[in-house]
Design a protein that fits this description.
891 residues, Leucine-rich repeat, LRR (right-handed beta-alpha superhelix), Phosphorylase Kinase, domain 1, twelve-stranded mixed beta sheet, five-stranded parallel beta sheet, binds 2-acetamido-2-deoxy-beta-D-glucopyranose, disulfide bond, transmembrane helix, nucleotide-binding, Ser/Thr_kinase_AS
């Protein structure tokens, strides 16, 4: 019995012994690996670490092993060690902690992959030169990774495989040559508390997954190029205690951080933050230290409690208390995300002092907001409705979403609302009939996005021009208004048309397909004008290929087919472009005998709109009636299908603008003072003539250097009469549409739309300032206080010294010239007086300028410069000759 029992037990113990032996053998083989790795490590370090002697590494100083003889920890911190770590370090399979910080270790960092026990890597403050690949893979237990202050590392990026380390609590990699973006892997680190990546070259934005980590201590400051984008994610990082984002390129507003109740230190300085400092920031309970300087923050200056260390610097432009228009404008800017372009310009507490995109009337009320073509995203703020004097709101060509706020219908003065080419959705509110609303280029307009009321179209589109009106206007109203509009337009067109026909009395007219085509011309006029008032209509089917076409030349006894203009301009080739005039491109043309002409081709988009048509007709109407040596001569016009062409005399020396502002690029020599005065005197005479015609006086409305053309003798002619308005009996007319060019607009005109001849005098005064200073009327590249020429120059006027300093550098005047300059400067101030009544008339201007020119050519006063009507300016002889052979027109 005993034997029976003992035998199996002996067998068992034998088995156990064998098992134990083999297990020891196996273990010692593994431990031998560790021993070998440690021996290699010891050999590669210099000087040899003290206490690292003997063959059993488990007995070395700073080395810890588990009971099986595996190395679990190595601590050689701050031992002044040099040398390179062997890659085999990666084979220490039970390693939990590696502490080699504060030495002089160099070479590549070992791979550190698949060490599933490794909890802590501390290798900061060394001279490592590279990170291996792969690196930081499969470290399933990692809690702390610290490799800061290894500035010799080759640039590397944080590998997204770090996401394997879901137990990570601290990641320190300051000053360690990181570049690229911060990977969006922070959802994998619910326990992460410390993230320090300062002094690297990280770029891109804060990853959205920051919100899913528990980060408390966030250091991303001092990136070489700078992290960028908005920092909205901070508002959902409620555990934050210390945030250092300084010296980056973060932009947009400071988010609401009211959830971050533990935050004590916030450093946002030296970024591009804009917008208001949220009030919630000032009431954070733990906040002790906040630095905001060197940003472009705006609005009320933040009021932090006593005891908080605050630095605001002086680049932020706070107001205290803020003007109500400023408050409103900031809210409007906020809806676009406080774009930097506005933050840069919108400083101070008065939006009428040269704020970008804002124009005011003489009472200091904002009347124009021009936010067109900025590429901004965001929404249209309902606060715009608080700017009660607003006439013009341009939001076209941005990336705006959301709907048009119904509050805008309260703007009683509103005339133009242009939201074309955005991504606006929703119903268009009902505006009163005087408001031109352009909603074209918004695919979702009229669709109620939230309620999914897809197909019903609130905005009705008029062929091509995309003008809309609200759906809720009943069809009756629409119908009635269309009828009224059509009747009105037909009548007014007929009046204009008749005037032309009558004046020409068939004499200068060349028509093919006569009546039929004139019907068509009439119709296209209707459509454009109707498009403007924004009612539903159908475009009459236009086939410009129809053989019927009208070609009209006015002003000379000749007529030429439109084909000729194509020919002489090389089929309107780009090489022939002279410039971009109002509503059209101007081409140079050369007649067969070499005579040069300028042909303005109205933009095809404008020829179908009343805007374009009006300019076209106005220009013809004015120029066929007025002739003056200093007004550019119109030699004819031409209508063919949608083509509208104007033919002018060619002015070979280009525009005054080119000679003043672009002479370097164009390789011209700068204009001498004498030439400048001669030019402005020419202009003054031309405009004086316009203003003082006995029967009808005309107002140019768009005087500026680019509309002043120069001949080979550098004498000037005024051009571009597209905006000219009739001023019967010296009375003013009130414009429904503000036209002209910013920088030259007289304040009362911008404010009220009231046009008098004094509007031209103002603009002329601005041109005088431009010839004196060589600066443009508006120059965004200059500091705010200098960018609006009129405001800046008028401030200098009191002081001859400052005028001397403001001169165009190319002038370099002698004493006599400087005298002359001062007189012109004084005249410029007079012409730009705020009150129109205080401005001189052009006759006075001519009187002041004439002696300045005569100074140089005293005996030789050019008689033609007086109010002569040059009735002999018609198309050149050569053209007539050429034309006579064409036999197209009975004379
Ligand atoms: C790490 O482990 C994974 C799977 O366990 C394996 O596919 C990979 O090759 C290993 N990587 C290294 C560098 O050992
Ligand atoms: C980067 O690390 C090096 C080495 O530790 C140190 O000398 C240097 O001051 C650090 N630079 C910064 C900006 O912290
Ligand atoms: C930062 O990284 C970019 C590439 O992302 C590189 O062009 C630039 O030279 C780096 N700057 C510095 C200071 O390292
Ligand atoms: C505030 O921040 C500055 C710079 O970041 C630092 O020098 C200072 O010690 C901080 N003070 C407190 C109270 O946190
Ligand atoms: C706009 O006006 C309303 C009422 O007049 C006022 O309550 C609101 O605060 C104003 N908004 C702004 C941004 O000024
Ligand atoms: C609108 O945004 C898209 C993509 O963000 C961009 O490609 C496009 O240029 C933007 N449009 C304008 C007018 O800025
Ligand atoms: C326009 O906005 C809608 C949301 O309102 C968006 O789904 C769509 O992608 C946007 N379209 C463009 C072209 O940006
Ligand atoms: C409306 O806006 C579009 C796009 O900017 C433009 O093409 C069209 O001419 C505008 N309509 C009018 C009448 O101004």
């Amino acid at each position: 019995m005993e034997e029976d029992e003992s035998r199996p037990s002996k067998r068992l113990s034998l088995l156990l012994t064998i098992a134990a032996l083999s297990s020891i053998l196996r273990l010692s083989a593994a431990a031998t690996t560790d021993d070998d790795v440690m021996a290699k490590l010891a050999k590669s370090l210099w000087p040899a670490p003290s206490g690292w002697s003997g063959t059993n590494p488990c007995e070395w100083t700073g080395v810890t092993c588990d009971s099986s003889g595996h190395v679990t920890a190595i601590n050689l911190a701050a031992k002044s060690l040099s040398g390179e770590l062997p890659p085999e370090l990666n084979q220490l399979s039970r390693l939990k902690s590696l502490s080699l910080q504060h030495n002089r270790l160099s070479g590549a960092i070992p791979p550190l992959t698949n060490l599933t026990s490794l909890q802590q890597i501390s290798i900061e403050s060394n001279h490592f030169s590279a990170v291996p690949s792969p690196f930081l893979v499969g470290l399933a237990s990692l809690q702390t990774l610290s490799l800061s202050d290894n500035p010799n590392l080759l640039p590397w990026t944080l590998p997204s495989t770090l996401a394997d380390s879901t137990t990570l609590t601290s990641l320190y990699a300051d000053n360690s040559s990181l570049f690229g973006s911060i990977p969006d892997i922070f959802g994998s680190f619910p326990n992460l508390q410390n993230l320090r990546l300062s002094y690297n070259n990280l770029t891109g934005s804060l990853p959205a997954s920051f919100a899913k980590s528990g980060i408390q201590n966030l250091w991303l400051n001092n990136q070489a190029q700078g992290l960028s984008g908005r920092v909205d994610v901070l508002s959902s990082m409620s555990q934050l205690t210390q945030v250092w984002l300084h010296k980056n390129q973060f932009s947009g507003p400071i988010p609401d951080m009211s959830a971050c109740t533990s935050l004590f230190d916030l450093s946002l300085r030296n970024n591009e933050f804009t917008g208001l400092v949220p009030n919630s920031l000032t009431t954070l309970p733990k906040l002790a230290n906040v630095s905001l300087e060197n940003n472009k923050l705006q609005g009320p200056s933040p009021n932090f409690p006593k005891g908080v260390l605050v630095s605001l610097g002086n680049t932020n432009t706070f107001c205290n208390p803020c003007d109500s228009q400023v408050t409103t404008l900031l809210e409007i800017s906020g809806a676009f995300g406080y774009p930097m372009a506005l933050a840069d310009s919108w400083s101070g507490n008065d939006p009428c002092k040269g704020w970008k995109s804002v124009s005011c009337d003489s009472n200091g009320a904002v009347i124009v907001l021009n936010f067109g073509k900025q590429g901004w995203a965001g929404t249209i703020s309902p606060a715009i409705a608080n700017l009660s004097a607003l006439t013009t709101l341009l939001l076209n060509e941005n990336n705006l979403t959301g709907s048009i706020p119904p509050s805008l219908t309260k703007l009683a003065q509103l005339k133009i609302l242009d939201v074309s080419n955005n991504n606006i959705s929703g119903k268009v509110p009902v505006f009163s009939s005087g408001v031109m609303v352009n909603t074209s280029g918004n695919p979702l307009i009229g669709k109620d996005v939230e309620s999914g009321e897809g197909s019903s179209s609130g905005g009705m589109t008029v062929g091509g021009s995309g003008l809309t009106t609200s759906k809720s206007i009943s069809r009756w109203v629409i119908g009635a208004t269309i009828v009224a509009a059509v009747v009105f337009l037909v009548v007014s067109w007929l009046v204009i048309y008749k005037r032309f026909v009558k004046r020409r009395s068939g004499k200068y007219m060349c028509m093919k397909g006569s009546r039929k085509r004139s019907e068509q011309l009439k119709k296209s006029g209707d459509v454009g004008a109707k498009g403007y008032s924004g009612y539903e209509s159908e475009l009459p089917s236009q086939s410009s290929a129809e053989n019927s076409s009208i070609q009209v030349y006015d002003g000379g006894n000749v007529a030429i087919p439109v084909q000729v203009l194509r020919e002489v301009t090389n089929n309107f080739s780009e090489g022939n472009i002279l410039g971009q005039g109002g509503f059209g491109v101007v081409y140079k043309g050369q007649l067969p005998d070499g005579t040069q002409i300028a042909v303005k081709r109205m933009e095809s988009t404008t020829t179908t709109s009343s805007k374009g048509l009006n300019e076209f007709q106005a220009e013809i109407a004015v120029l066929s009636r007025v002739r003056h040596r200093h007004l550019v001569a119109l030699n004819g016009f031409c209508v063919d299908g949608n083509e509208r062409l104007l033919v002018y005399e060619y002015m070979p020396q280009g525009t005054l603008g080119q000679h003043l502002f672009k002479y370097r690029e164009l390789g011209l020599s700068p204009l001498a003072w004498k030439q400048r005065v001669t030019i402005v005197l020419d202009v003054a005479r031309g405009v004086e003539y316009l203003h003082s015609l006995a029967q009808q006086s005309f107002i140019h409305r768009d005087l500026k250097p680019s509309n002043i053309l120069l001949g080979d003798d550098m004498r000037a002619k005024v051009s571009d009469f597209g905006l000219v308005r009739n001023a019967p009996d010296g009375k003013y007319s009130v414009e429904t549409r503000l036209a002209g060019t910013f920088g030259y607009l007289a304040p009362e005109y911008a404010a009220t739309g009231k046009v008098t001849t004094k509007v031209d005098v103002f603009a002329f005064g601005v041109v005088l300032m431009e010839i004196i200073t060589g600066r443009k009327a508006l120059d965004d590249t200059l500091p705010d206080e200098e960018s609006h020429l009129v405001s800046w120059f008028r401030r200098l006027l009191n002081n001859r010294n400052s005028i001397g300093k403001s001169l165009d550098l190319s002038l370099d005047p002698d004493e006599e010239t400087f005298e002359s300059i001062c007189k012109v400067a004084e005249l410029a101030g007079h012409c730009t007086a705020r009150e129109p009544l205080q401005r001189p008339d052009m006759g006075h201007v001519v009187t002041v300028l004439s002696p300045l020119v005569d100074q140089w050519k005293p005996a030789n006063r050019d008689e033609e410069d007086s109010f002569d009507m040059d009735r002999h300016m018609s198309l050149p002889q050569a053209l007539q000759k050429w034309q006579s052979s064409e036999d197209t027109r009975p004379q």
